[in-house]
Amino acid sequence: MTEETNILHLEGTLTIKTVPETRDRLVAALKSARDSNHPLEINISEDCNCDLTLPQLLVAAQTAADADGFGIRIRAAQDGAFATTLERAGFAGTGVDGSILRINGDN
What we know:
The protein is 39% helix and 18% strand. The protein is an alpha/beta fold. The strands form two sheets. The protein has a three-stranded parallel β-sheet with strand order 1-3-5, with helices on one face. It has a two-stranded parallel ribbon with strand order 2-4. The longest helix has 18 residues, at 19-36.
């Protein structure tokens, strides 16, 4: 039997201009996950238009989920826009040993 998961798909423009809408969607998804006592999976579109606002929101969401005792899994393509944003900000990328970006242990 597989564990049930709440899924939130983030796509399109995910920048400071759309932060209120993205935040509202995240808050609603967090509430749903907490109420159902199931983890939340956040799928980030490979071709989204994102800036550093998105990782900031995700860190805040992770903090809220941790406080409420449930998990968040973030899925994003290793060669997608989110990975590029993290790499440009110096938070991720190919390591000295040739390792690639991994989010929650997944490619």
